[in-house]
Amino acid sequence: EGKGKKRNPLHDFKKTGELMLIKVNKTLEVKTKLLNTTEQCAKRCSRNKGLSFTCKAFAYDRVTKRCHWLSFNSLTNGVRKKQDHAFDLYEKKDYVRNCIIGKGADYKGTVSVTRSGIQCQAWNSMIPHEH
Questions:
Q1: Is 102 exposed, middle or buried (0-12, 13-18, 19+ CB in 10 A)?
Q2: pTM of the entire structure?
Q3: Residue 49 belongs to a domain
Q4: What is the CATH number of the domain that holds 73?
């Protein structure tokens, strides 16, 4: 099973059609390059290849075939969404997923309260529980 087949890098991304993210916060980083396919954009984002930041999303301009790698996603403060027919937005599922799988060691989402509504303990805190 799976011999000779390469895994599609787009499986790690959530696609939202006709949407672009605009950075209001000027410290957020973006890098662009001409690439023919969304798969090529996804592969480079997943590997952070040639990027000076951790890629959390990319937007693909279908008209100019240009990839825009983003150091942010739609949940980041200082970002606004813009409807744009030329773009498709692809966000890394790890950063927009609000569920915890297993023990949650790789969780990068935004949930910071327990199911019963108690605020989660900060990773760098030993209070109220020791690690």
A1: exposed
A2: 0.75
A3: yes
A4: 3.50.4.10
